[in-house]
Amino acid sequence: FSYPARHIVEVDGKRGLFRGLTPRLISSTLSTITRGSVKKAFPLEDMEHVSNKDDVKTSLRKVVKETSHEMMMQCVSRVVSHPLHVISMRCMVQFVGREVKYSGVFSAIGRIFKEEGILGFFVGLVPHILGDVIFLWCCNLLAHFINTYAVDDNFSQASVIRSYTKFVMGIAVSMLTYPFLLVGDLMAVNNCGLRAGLPPYAPAFTSWIHCWRYLSAQGQLFRGSSLLFRRAPVPAACFPID
């Protein structure tokens, strides 16, 4: 974390650390509002908490129902907020080529619409949604099975442990789904006219699957996943694969 942060400050000053902040805040706000609206429009029926092993089927049904509802909210909010996420990412990567192509939210919206059409606002959406869906199901199901089979109801701190299980599973699963986030963000800036999305910094990917295969071949599917350790790029990373 300190390496890129220090480099950005040296080049752009501390203000450079906040590139893309405005569209990112708008994106987060839209996501929160959308989730709340969907939750009100499609409320989830209250179900009594179940933890007894004799009621495993009932408990699993409850988890599936809750996860399905959460998945719907997440997918809708992701679609609504993704255009602002694309703008935010492009504002950030302008640092690489010292460009000013995307200088504001409204001007960026007009430019993307003019150059790429409506679809330009949704590049990288598919891997993001896939990552969200896989994260939700893996996290919730793992937490459910651990709470059901590994945590004994007779244990005095059972309720406390269960309250943290989902949080811990979220951290673990987020590492597994990180490649989807990375691929989605790379596709958001790929071949958009900015130097960071063009050779030699990156090939012009034909699809997010092409991007995934490229990163996998270079061993870079988890690049940027750690705040503590930096992975130097492989020299061959500049060359595209078929």
Automatic annotation (TrEMBL):
Transmembrane region positions?
Answer: 118-147, 167-189
Q: Which SUPFAM superfamilies match?
A: Mitochondrial carrier
Subcellular compartments: Mitochondrion outer membrane
Q: Where are the Solcar repeats?
A: 61-149
> How does the protein associate with the membrane?
Multi-pass membrane protein
So which domain of life are we looking at? Answer: Eukaryota
Q: Which UniProt keywords apply?
A: Membrane, Mitochondrion, Mitochondrion outer membrane, Repeat, Transmembrane, Transmembrane helix, Transport
Gene Ontology process terms (BP): positive regulation of apoptotic process
User: Does the keyword Transmembrane feature in the UniProt annotation?
Assistant: yes
Q: Which InterPro entries match?
A: MCP_dom_sf, MCP_transmembrane
> Where is this protein primarily located?
mitochondrion
Q: Which GO terms describe its cellular component?
A: mitochondrial outer membrane
PANTHER family attached to this UniProt entry: MITOCHONDRIAL CARRIER HOMOLOG (PTHR10780), MITOCHONDRIAL CARRIER HOMOLOG 1 (PTHR10780:SF3)
Question: What family classification does the UniProt entry report for this protein?
Answer: Belongs to the mitochondrial carrier (TC 2.A.29) family.
Q: What is this protein called?
A: MTCH1 protein
Instruction: Tell me what organism the protein belongs to.
Output: Glareola pratincola
